[in-house]
């Protein structure tokens, strides 16, 4: 038997038998000590647990903590997410070509006004880049932060197919809105207004540049109205569809930081100091729900909806999940407007508070827009009552061109890509007693529709992808590698234990067999010695 086997057998004997001693020739206490099997198993098993533990830590602590840090307050991470990046505002105006027919009554066989959209077909698409920045950022003691967000627009001729100096024919919103406000007034007041319009040279339709219509123009009618009816219009200088948006803020937002209660992160607490508005006719419609429309709570699911308050629409809105996708390699959820967003009260009862309503699919915003008969909808009356698009030729609503969407990273709740398309329309008709309105047939006439689009790009996009997509993917694969390594390290002592027991069994089996052979040989030798006559020389027995 080799020394290795003998050493192994002795070690096994010492570990398994009580009272075992050293082999002959070796003094007690001088036994060569091997690491105890239990100690070795504990050491290897400890490495296995150490390898498997990071898997648990990454899944339970590291990734959720990283996501929370991306939006938690008052850390620097969320403030960095507030670094402004450009948003493109593309506006498509609607010019009424049948000016005489509209003002003097229909002459076409079907009696419809015929507007012409100066859009991609006519290569007119003035684009302005919108820049936003937050200021007056104040952290409050009640787990909220307050801020003002300022907006400015810069015209980009290189990305436009037309100039803001181009002239188009548009309804005179001031004249037609004032006429609608005078509809139920005494005839004497209507005659005075007709005389005033004539004196100032005001007509139902006007020929002005795109820039004037969008961003404001001087009009003597504004000064006259402010002089005699100071509370009718909020405008004191120029009047324009988007004049109040340029170089202005969207109101004082106070939102929850999520430091004390992470489930309330980004939710609006107050807007301009109000917890609800007073534009509408029901408490539900006046509620300020959701976020400010820029970030949402993380860890979204397909059942999640996007709620936000829009100061421009004077109401809270809700978007629903449509599908999953990717943006520049980043997984996203696409949220779209439900068909009931601008539905009237008869189609969707919760919207009854936004009435008085007309056809479904357009929202009356007159109560928050100086009582002018203005309506908000999707472009070309998409998702609205078909009678609206049929009443105005040249409109072709379709989902691809006229729907809105937001692509959100579901783990963080941060928008990656968005395209918000809305249309502003004016309800016009002839008002008896006001000659400027002529014989205008009642119609909801589109004024302008615009697309506000933007996407994360450049360094913010690269940083976002690295920290919240690439690194989690690496960690995800690493946890499986570490888990496999931990399992291997945990199996090593078990296998070692089994193999050691097998060696011990073989040793004792061979030892027992060897002792029996020796006893047989010794007995055979003794029998020879006793049976052989004296003087006989025995030959050496060879085994």
TrEMBL record:
Location, primary (coarse class): membrane
Region (Disordered), start-end ranges: 1-34
Keywords associated with the record: Cell membrane, Disulfide bond, Glycoprotein, Membrane, Receptor, Transmembrane, Transmembrane helix
Transmembrane segments: 477-495
A GO cellular component entry from the record: lysosome
Topological category with respect to the lipid bilayer: Multi-pass membrane protein
Claim: Cell membrane is one of the keywords in the record: yes
InterPro entries in alphabetical order: CD36_fam
Listed GO MF terms: apolipoprotein A-I binding; high-density lipoprotein particle binding; high-density lipoprotein particle receptor activity; lipopolysaccharide binding; lipopolysaccharide immune receptor activity; low-density lipoprotein particle binding; scavenger receptor activity
GO annotation (BP), single: cholesterol import
Domain of life where this protein originates: Eukaryota
Protein name: Scavenger receptor class B member 1
Organism: Ursus americanus
């Amino acid at each position: 038997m080799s020394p290795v086997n003998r050493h192994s057998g002795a070690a096994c004997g010492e570990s398994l038998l009580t009272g075992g001693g050293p082999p002959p020739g070796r003094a007690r206490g001088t036994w060569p000590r091997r690491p105890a099997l239990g100690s070795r198993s504990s050491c290897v098993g400890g490495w296995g647990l150490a390898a498997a533990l990071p898997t648990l830590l990454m899944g339970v602590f590291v990734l959720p903590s990283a996501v929370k840090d991306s939006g938690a307050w008052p850390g620097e991470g969320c403030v960095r997410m507030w670094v402004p990046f450009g948003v493109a505002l593309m506006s498509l105006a609607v010019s009424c070509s049948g000016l005489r027919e509209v003002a003097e009554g229909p002459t076409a066989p079907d009696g419809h006004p015929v507007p012409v959209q100066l859009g991609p077909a006519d290569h007119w698409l003035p684009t302005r880049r919108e820049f936003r920045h937050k200021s007056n950022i104040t952290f409050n003691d009640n787990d909220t932060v307050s801020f003002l967000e300022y907006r400015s627009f810069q015209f980009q001729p290189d990305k436009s197919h037309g100039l803001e100096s181009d002239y188009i024919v548009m309804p005179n919103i001031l004249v037609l809105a004032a006429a609608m406000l005078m509809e139920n007034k005494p005839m004497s007041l209507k005659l005075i207004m007709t005389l005033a319009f004539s004196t100032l040279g005001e007509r139902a339709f006007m020929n002005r540049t795109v820039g004037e219509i969008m961003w404001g123009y001087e009009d003597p009618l504004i000064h006259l109205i402010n002089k005699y009816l100071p509370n009718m219009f909020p405008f004191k200088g120029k009047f324009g569809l988007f004049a109040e948006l340029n170089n202005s803020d969207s109101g004082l937002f106070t939102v929850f930081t999520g430091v004390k209660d992470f489930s309330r992160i980004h939710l609006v607490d107050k807007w301009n100091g109000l917890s609800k508005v007073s534009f509408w006719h029901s408490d539900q419609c006046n509620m300020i729900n959701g976020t400010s429309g820029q970030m949402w709570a993380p860890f979204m699911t397909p059942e999640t909806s996007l709620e936000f308050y829009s100061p421009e629409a004077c109401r809270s809105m809700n978007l629903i999940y449509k599908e999953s996708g990717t943006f520049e390699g980043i997984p996203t959820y696409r949220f779209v407007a439900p068909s009931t967003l601008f539905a009237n009260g008869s189609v969707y009862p919760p919207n009854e508070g936004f009435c008085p309503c007309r056809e479904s699919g357009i929202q009356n915003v007159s109560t928050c827009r100086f009582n002018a008969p203005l309506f908000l909808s999707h472009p070309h009356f998409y998702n609205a009552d078909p009678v609206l698009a049929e009443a105005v030729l040249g409109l072709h609503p379709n989902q691809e061109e006229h729907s809105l969407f937001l692509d959100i990273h579901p783990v963080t709740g941060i928008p990656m890509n968005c395209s918000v398309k809305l249309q502003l329309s004016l309800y016009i008709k002839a008002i008896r007693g006001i000659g400027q309105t002529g014989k205008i047939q009642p119609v909801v006439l589109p004024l302008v529709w615009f697309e506000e689009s933007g996407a994360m790009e450049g360094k913010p996009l690269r940083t976002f992808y690295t920290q919240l997509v690439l690194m989690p993917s690496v960690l995800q694969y690493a946890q499986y590698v570490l888990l496999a390594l931990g399992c291997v390290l945990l199996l090593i002592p078990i296998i070692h234990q089994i193999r050691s027991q097998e060696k011990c069994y073989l040793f004792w089996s061979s030892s027992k067999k060897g002792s029996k052979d020796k006893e047989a040989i010794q007995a055979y030798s003794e029998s020879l010695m006793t049976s052989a006559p004296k003087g006989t020389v025995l030959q050496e027995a060879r085994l």
